[in-house]
Design goal:
The chain is an alpha/beta fold. The protein has 12 helices and 17 strands. The strands form 3 sheets. The chain has an 8-stranded parallel β-barrel with strand order 3-4-6-7-8-9-10-16, surrounded by 6 helices.
């Protein structure tokens, strides 16, 4: 497959003719909507020929809520080793709280496609936000931990999950060691029953990086505690921050290079965002809030507003500006060019694979490019 960047005067038909491919494949690969207008600067994934080159084998995962559209999940599962179902919570007594919507259909659909369903554990408080109080109670009380572990294993067996992912954020720095010890206890118990355990890591670049997101996450201890880790290498550009790339490649590289000094490459999955943001301008700190959009929606916005898509050579990310209803907007998102840069990091450092936050919106070109770049491993044998 190859990537083509739309130039002025291009059409789907002219691009297909110039590259000896079909208009239907261009439309399908890139989820183009009738009448198939294009934006200048838009990156298209073209099917040229079947690849015969050897491909690096990786493990892939994607996070999804139970309200994901069935079509989206069905289209995405063939490209996933693991499906992380988001999420299960817990009480201060260690009782497990299931998702508000039934997750059984997702588990069954994943298994039908030979994808391993993973139970994602999160410490959400009553307000729906990450609670470091709840985390602190858990990691400092062995009785509560054991009750939670027992409940996790019972639920996994009953519902036919295939593993556990621990996604705790805003851990207090003083709970750093206790949290790693908790992950170790979960892993030992889960592994004994045949289930792997992973843990999500905030994107650090040093041991002593300040900030509530980072103080409680010890890369070396957690790399030893879990079977594998996810680097959450996204959210540099975020809802309440200034307009910028969600996952600028130079920043992502810094996190990977630091992680490799503390965790073996074969235990690291690179986090990849499957979304973008649309900021109203001018940006005012504490006031402006960006709107989350899908990557295909970003292109549709550019087309509707005759915006030219630019590609930043530092962050290696696409972006554009447009005006609507008298308000200027700035959009940053992901396309196949920015995804290719992230795939190259996985290849360069021989990482375990990639995990996507999140797969709620279909981005077919990404999955086709992923499958063209790598061999996607099926679920690994139980540990």
């Amino acid at each position: 497959m190859t990537i083509y960047v739309v130039q002025a005067g291009d059409s789907v038909d002219s691009i297909a003719a110039a590259h000896n491919t079909s208009t239907n494949s261009i439309i399908y690969n890139n989820q183009l909507s009738y009448p198939y207008r294009l934006a200048i600067g838009q990156a298209l994934l073209l099917t040229i020929s079947d690849s015969t080159e050897d491909r690096m084998s990786i493990v892939t995962g994607g996070y999804a809520y139970p309200f994901i559209r069935r079509f989206t999940l069905t289209e995405t599962l063939p490209y996933l080793t693991d499906l992380f179902i988001f999420s299960y919570g817990f009480t201060i007594d260690g009782e497990l709280i299931p998702p508000q919507l039934d997750d059984t259909w997702m588990i069954e659909l994943a298994q039908e496609d030979n994808t391993r369903p993973i139970l994602t554990l999160t410490p959400f408080g009553p307000d729906g936000m990450f609670s470091n109080y709840l985390i602190s109670v858990l990691v400092n009380n062995l009785e509560v931990q054991q009750n939670l572990i027992d409940n996790l294993l019972q639920t996994i067996e009953k519902k036919h999950y295939g593993g556990i992912d621990i996604d705790f954020e805003y851990i207090l720095a003083e709970d750093r060691i206790a949290f790693a010890e908790f992950v170790t206890r979960v892993r030992i118990s889960a592994n004994a029953a045949g289930y792997p355990v992973s843990v999500a890591l905030a994107p650090k670049t040093s041991d002593d990086q300040p900030g509530l997101l980072y103080g409680g996450k010890d890369y070396q201890l957690l790399g030893e505690a879990a079977n594998h880790v996810l680097l959450m290498t996204y959210e540099w550009g975020y809802t309440y921050g200034p307009p910028m790339a969600v996952a600028p490649i130079h920043k992502v590289r810094e996190v990977v290079e630091y992680a490799l000094t503390r965790i073996p490459a074969e235990k690291i999955n690179l986090g990849i965002p499957n979304y973008g943001y649309d900021w109203p301008l001018p940006y005012e700190k504490g006031i402006t809030a960006a709107r989350t959009i899908s990557n295909t929606e970003a292109v549709e916005i550019a087309i509707a507003n005759n915006a030219v898509i630019e590609f930043d050579q530092v962050s290696m990310s696409p972006h554009f500006t447009y005006e609507a209803d008298g308000i200027m907007h700035e959009v940053w998102f992901e396309d196949v060019r920015s995804m290719k840069e992230k795939f190259s990091l996985i290849q360069e450092y021989h990482l375990r694979g990639a995990d996507y936050w999140q797969i709620m919106n279909l981005f077919r070109a990404n999955w086709l490019l992923l499958a063209d770049t790598f061999y996607i491993a099926p679920p690994l044998p139980s540990v």
